[in-house]
Design goal:
Blueprint lengths: L3 E4 L4 E4 L9 E6 L10 H19 L3 E6 L6 H10 L3 H18 L15 H13 L3 E3 L5 E3 L26 H6 L6 E6 L14 E3 L1 H13 L4 E7 L3 H16 L4 E7 L2 E3 L2 E2 L10 H5 L4 H9 L7 E3 L1 H25 L12 H15 L4 H23 L5 H18 L15 H19 L3 H13 L2 E6 L2 E6 L2
Parallel strand pairs: 3-4, 3-9, 9-10, 11-13
Antiparallel strand pairs: 1-2, 5-6, 6-7, 7-8, 11-12, 14-15
Helix pairs in contact: 2-3, 4-6, 6-7, 9-10, 10-12, 10-13, 11-12, 11-13, 12-13, 14-15
The structure holds one RNA strand.
RNA sequence: GGUGCGGUACCCAAGUGGCCCAAGGGGGAGGUCUGCAAAACCUCUAUUCGCCGGUUCAAAUCCGGCCCGCACCUCCA
């Protein structure tokens, strides 16, 4: 069973075979954030789905070298810094820090490397010189350097755009048009205006163009001119990734990336979420409404290529779905008393069957939506076996196996217990003790068949957000409901 | 104008030639358990996959036409 990846370059699901002769090492590059503000849940979708892909590749036994850049110098950063009255570098630093904090809240692991554009200016300049030497780029009178699109025959191969059919001249900067030979030519090196962050270059003071960074850092960090996987949102397909291909391949004469992965947009109430539309939701704002497990589950509940609509109803459904497996796992832990061995699932035929279904789904272009079907079937079995064990009739080994398998699935999707809301938290020690006291009083009332009193206690606690659940083993309580 | 994506039950969402009278989640209905609830479990909730034709022994899946919605061609994950 091999992994198949939908490759934007071929528009097919291609078998995944890494370039590494041993077939073990995988070079993976994801376009990271431009740190001019906090990222939003739409950006988070990319970070999360790519995190899941990375985890799956590792699960399959690959050694993944995962690189995600941080664009810490760019027009928007400069503009925003001016608004806030602080140096651009300081603004970038602030939001870089916030980026790491926010991905951590969503359970997204940091990349193996997070190169920053400002640390790679030297090799970027070298790349520009190489392109000029090869006749693919030219400097304009202001000290900027442009990539000459018509010099690269394959231009448009990723986004299937034909240079002649594009709406040339529409919405273009007039000043830039004057400097460029062709409207589609894009900036490799941008001449600095006074006061802007700038580096010395053969063309004068300036800063690297956005597209250039990714080409340069992808090749540098992977020590290769061809990498295995390159990913980003669909909106980056054109022009960003198209331009990356053009400048990289024009320079090296080799394929730049072998598998191009593009995730679909996250809409909000049916409309595209974006920073420019201003309808975005940041992670900290969202975490006040939904727990991290819910957000992450929601983001993996549909296949990554599809559009996903962020609505209150959808999030509420996701929240309930996560409670289903979180609760099941907690109950299993309670009954088991000890953590199962990580590979305990291998001892159960049923678990192996569920694992095979999960793997089949994930190998089919990271189909997390379908993988979840296997996860939920597992949850049903887990609950059934757990109930049986509680009644002294079930197979403990089976319970351990299923619990271990649930951990495995959640580990791959990243919908792990550490993202769960702390349901029993939020009450001070004394309040918790008072709840216990009321439960004891109620138990006595029930034994005395004083059901009216018992129900009154339960109802009033429920009114305070404390839910009681009776079972043969005693009464449990939790917050919410 | 060009290039793509999508339309599957009340909602979300897999499935892209026979395993599909269509997975899974949410919601709803009934049941088991329970003093009653809750939770859990069981059953039911699309003979049908935007519409119309066609190909095929066989189509949600392929082809053609049409109707809707969305994105990209400009910074954007």
């Amino acid at each position: 069973m091999t992994l198949r990846i939908f490759n934007s370059l071929t528009r097919r699901k291609d078998d995944f075979v890494p370039l590494d002769p041993d077939g073990r090492r995988v070079s993976f590059y994801n376009c990271g954030p431009t740190v001019y503000g906090p990222f939003h849940i739409g950006n988070a979708r990319n970070f999360v789905v790519v995190d899941v892909m990375r985890r799956w590749l590792e699960h399959l036994g690959y050694t993944v070298h995962f690189v995600q850049n941080i664009t810490d110098v760019d027009d928007k950063i400069i503009a925003r810094a001016a608004e806030e009255g602080i140096p651009p570098g300081q603004l970038a630093e602030k939001y870089t820090k916030l980026f790491f904090e926010h991905i951590a809240l969503l359970g997204v692991r940091p990349a193996d490397e997070h190169p920053r554009a400002t640390q790679y200016v030297e090799p970027m300049i070298a790349l520009v010189e190489r392109l000029i030497a090869g006749g693919h780029a030219y400097a304009s009178e202001d000290g900027s350097v442009w990539f000459e699109v018509r010099s690269f025959a394959d231009y448009g191969k990723l986004s299937r755009k034909n240079i002649d059919e594009m709406r040339q001249g529409e919405r273009v900067d007039e000043e830039q048009q004057r400097l460029k030979r062709n409207a589609l030519d894009f900036c490799l090196w941008k001449a600095a205006k006074p006061g802007e962050p700038a580096w010395d270059s053969p063309w004068g003071k300036g800063r690297p163009g956005w597209h250039l960074e990714c080409s340069c850092m992808a090749m540098k960090c992977h020590h290769a001119e061809t990498i295995d996987i390159h990913s980003g949102g669909v909106d980056l397909q054109f022009p960003h990734h198209e331009n990356e291909i053009a400048q990289s391949e024009a320079a090296t004469g080799r394929p730049f990336a072998r598998y191009w992965i593009h995730n679909g947009f996250l809409n909000i109430d049916g409309e595209k979420m974006s920073k420019s539309l201003g309808n975005f939701k940041t992670i900290d704002a969202l975490l006040a409404l939904y727990d991290a497990l819910t957000l992450r589950h929601f983001l993996v509940s549909a296949s990554y290529r599809r559009e996903l609509d962020f609505t209150q109803e959808n999030l509420e459904a996701a929240r309930k779905a996560t409670r289903r497996y979180a609760e099941a796992r907690r109950e299993a832990a309670r009954v088991l008393g000890a953590e199962p061995a990580a590979d305990a699932w291998k001892h159960s035929a049923r678990a192996r069957e569920l694992e095979a279904r999960f793997a089949e789904a994930m190998n089919d272009d990271f189909n997390t939506a379908q993988a979840l079907a296997s996860l939920f079937d597992l949850v049903t079995d887990l609950n059934t076996v757990r109930t049986a064990v509680e009644r002294g009739a079930g197979d403990r080994g089976e319970l351990e196996a299923l619990a271990a398998l649930l951990d495995l699935f959640r580990g791959i999707l990243g919908t792990t217990a550490n993202l769960e809301p702390a349901e029993e938290a939020g009450l001070s020690d004394i309040s918790g003790q008072l709840v216990e006291l009321l439960i004891d009083v109620r138990a006595k009332a029930r034994r005395a068949k004083m059901f009216e009193l018992a129900d009154d206690i339960r109802n009033r606690l429920s009114g305070m957000g404390i839910v009681l659940e009776d079972s043969p083993a005693g009464t449990k309580w939790k917050r919410g409901g």
